[in-house]
Amino acid sequence: MYRLFLSSQDRYPFTLVCAALTCALMPWYTVRWHYGPLPTTLLETGILVTIASFAIESWAQRGLPEWRSPFTLPALLFIVAGAISVMVAPSHSAALGLYRAYILEPIAFFVALSVVVRSWAHARLILLGLAISAIALALPNLYVVLQAIRHHALNLAGAPPVAIYQTPNAVALFLIPLIAVASAIVIYSPHVGDRWAAVAFLVIALPATLLTFSRGGYVALLVIGLLLALSHPSRVWLVASLALIALAFSRIPAVATRIGHELNPADPNNSLDQRVRLWKATFRLLQDHPIFGTGLSGFARSIDPYRSVSGYTDNLIYPHNILLNFWTETGLLGLAAFAWIFVGAAQVAWRGWRAGIPSWRPLQLGVLLALMGIIVHGLVDVPYFKNDLSLEFWVLLGLSWAGRREVAAG
User: Fold this and answer.
1) Which strand (E) or helix (H) includes residue 2?
2) What is the pLDDT of residues 34-57, one digit of tens each?
3) Residue 9: pLDDT band with limits 50, 70, 90
């Protein structure tokens, strides 16, 4: 087991193990307490322990680790944009907490991870941690939804039941990027053990995601499936098969009911109509705050005067659109910085898929598909501003960059 993940030549053995354990803790940002006046979470504790271990092991080697990457400059700009957003936010203390959790800590974790992951065996250990998080989230959610179905208590006019998280969409947002990675590994990995492990993961994660009844999640999964099929030599048959499966799935009564709410503009449970109203109000808000937005944690308070513009009535803390999320929270500078990060991530993953080491290529394709899923789902939701999602994003980038750097080192 030791040789499967680690070797006696590893330079950062403790940091690597801490990073994997932290990846296994992602849903547990819901476990909260205070160190004196400072709030914290179980996930944040794991992140800080990992960063501390990385600092200690780097100091012990009497050398500065290689920290530069294609993400260095845009990440620094993102950090600066976040700092400005703290200053302009209505509540500096609330904004500072989000700045720490969504920007500083995930980026610091990325730096540590991209340095300590030096082989596919290391990446496999991090992926195991991610899989543990996903399964710990998926199984309870599967149980509560199946119990609701069993007792004829599933009401698809509103949100389906959810465990651990507060909304089913939050479950789908976390699971879908990992489903993209696992799907690519199933089809392309040269390691039989990795393929079977990915299959086992999908057997749990895919049904759990489908049973969130997240309509944005369904579209994201369909796009990921289509892109994965197009990457394969048998693309014609795979695309046709996927289209038939998607059509059959959409005709399942519960799914058809859920989708039907979105296709009827007069339906009071049409969430897309509320999204459009929300976006109209947000654009009006941004006319008054075009440069800096509303600051971290500022949207929910700042949107109130603009509700009458569109008749928006929900109480959401973000605009539920990836562009508007970053614009309102971090201003134009933060939006530009994240766009730079995202494009750089897609380029790194694409090059890794096209010309990478065979063991790493499926992961690189999976990260590329995950990014596409994040964009698609992010058109109607919040795929980054959450403790688990921001860390998951930077972990996937760290793994992708580690794979590209191993190619350069080879």
Assistant:
1) helix 2-5
2) 888 888 999 999 999 999 999 999
3) low
Contact 12, 54 (CB under 8 A): yes
Residue 387 identity = N
Rounded to an integer, what distance in angstroms lies between the CA atom of residue 156 and that of residue 154?
6
| Rounded distance between C-alpha atoms, residue 292 and residue 279, angstroms | 18
Lookup: tokens for 216 = 């944005």
DSSP secondary structure string for all residues of 373-390: HHHHHHTSS-SSSSHHHH
Check residue 159 and report its DSSP letter. Answer: P
| Selection from 124, 175, 174 nearest residue 16 by Cα | 124
Residue 61's pLDDT is 83
Give the integer Cα–Cα distance in Å for 272 and 264. 10
- Helix, strand, or coil (residue 156): coil
Q: Which residues have CB under 8 Å from 320's CB, separation 6+?
A: 275, 278, 380, 381, 382
Q: Count the Cβ atoms, other than its own, within 10 Å of residue 153.
A: 9
CA distance 131 to 402: 19
Q: Percentages helix, strand, coil for the chain, rounded to the nearest 5? A: 75, 0, 25
Domain ranges of the chain: 2-402
- The answer to whether 254 and 291 have CB atoms below 8 angstroms apart is no
Coil, helix or strand at residue 271: helix
Whether 123 contacts 402, CB under 8 Å? yes
Residue where the block lists tokens 């290391």: 122
The C-alpha atoms of residue 24 and residue 43 are separated, in whole angstroms, by 9
Return the DSSP state at 34.
Answer: E
The model carries a pTM of 0.94
The residue whose two tokens read 């179980």 is 42
Query: What does the block give as tokens for 110?
Result: 């990325």
Q: Is 345 helix (H, G, I), strand (E, B) or coil?
A: helix
Which contacts qualify for 147-156: CB closer than 8 Å, 24 or more apart?
Answer: 149/254, 154/254, 156/213, 156/254, 156/257, 156/258, 156/261
So what's the pLDDT on residue 8? Answer: 45
Give the SS3 label for residue 29.
helix
CA–CA distance, 239 with 129 (Å, rounded to integer): 32
Beta pairing, strands 38-41 & 32-35: antiparallel
